[in-house]
Amino acid sequence: KLEKVERVNHNVAHFRFKLPNETDVAGLPVASCVMFRANITKDGNTQEVIRPYTPTSLEKAQGYVDFVIKDYPNGTMSRHVHSLKVGDTIDIKGPFEKYNWEKKPVNEVGMIAGGTGITPMLQLLRKVFSPESSDKSSKFTLIFANISEQDILFKDELDGYAKTHSDRFKVIYVLDSPIGSNWSGVTGYITKELLKENLPQPDVESSITFVCGPPPMMEAVSGDKNPDKSQGTLRGYLKELGYIQDRVYKL
User: Fold this and answer.
1) Distance CA 60, CA 139 (A)
2) Measuring CA to CA, how many Å separate 182 from each of 143, 175, 179?
3) pTM value?
4) Which of 97, 129, 237, 250 could be stapled to 192 by a disulfide with Cβ–Cβ 3.0 to 4.6 Å?
């Protein structure tokens, strides 16, 4: 049941769904997603629509689970979720594990995210940089692409990690169309050169590079996932730079 909606920016909102009991925890392993399911009527036809979303609430949060969801003009599920009112319900099933960090931690992590593709990256960063985390050494480099400044989600939190854990976390912001002349980050799109300069090198054995974002970005960087959401072959810039399939994971 939808408990709260907060506008994040012009096309993104934060949704809090209440769990059946106040002491319930979603118990979502890092990194994982859930499936939203709804019967949606469009142009007179009703169909069952299923879409994956990554929770942004902490693993141990009690009584609720949070999501940050972008409203895409042609997104059947995202439009439906954004039309929900407090008190409305939606079917949520999961969790579906993507990459189990507990079982497969590595020393160096590259992260390439676009837009709301930041959510699975944030799931991992929150876990690793939480006070109770036993991981005190893994290093992370995040390349985060957006259209303009107002589209950068969780910027204060990310900048906080970069300040508090400056020896372990670095974030590089990339904007298509920065507004004004004060922008100090990268302008344009993610390039092969940007990846080469900042990510763990392809031959680092204890490393992984995570990629998550809109299909055009995925296609350019790593190749998109298969239609059935399996990993698909590694293509794009990472393949050209010499990365191997086992050290790249599409979230």
Assistant:
1) 24
2) 19, 12, 8
3) 0.90
4) 237
Of 50, 56, 51, 62, which is closest to residue 20 (Cα–Cα)? 62
Nearest to 116 by CA among 74, 54, 161: 54
Q: Which amino acid is at 8?
A: V
Please spell the DSSP secondary structure of 65-76, one letter per residue: EEEEEE--TT-H
Q: Which DSSP string corresponds to 71-124?
A: --TT-HHHHHHHH--TT---EEEEEEES--TTTS--SEEEEEEEGGGHHHHHHH
In sequence order, what are the residues at sequence separation of 6 or more whose Cβ sits closer than 8 angstroms to the Cβ of residue 35? Answer: 50, 51, 52, 53, 92, 93, 94, 96
Q: How far is it, in rounded angstroms, from Cα 213 to Cα 114?
A: 4
CA distance 72 to 215: 13
Which of the 8 DSSP states describes residue 23? Answer: T
* Other residues' Cβ atoms within 10 Å of the Cβ of residue 216: 11
* Structure tokens that stand for 127 in this block: 């876990």
Helix, strand, or coil (residue 195): helix
Q: How far, in Å, are 83, 128, 129, 137 from residue 134 at the CA level?
A: 41, 8, 9, 9
Is residue 40 within 8 A of residue 77, CB to CB? The reply is yes
Query: pLDDT digits over 123-139, tens only?
Result: 999 999 988 888 889 99
**Cα-Cα end-to-end distance for the chain:** 26
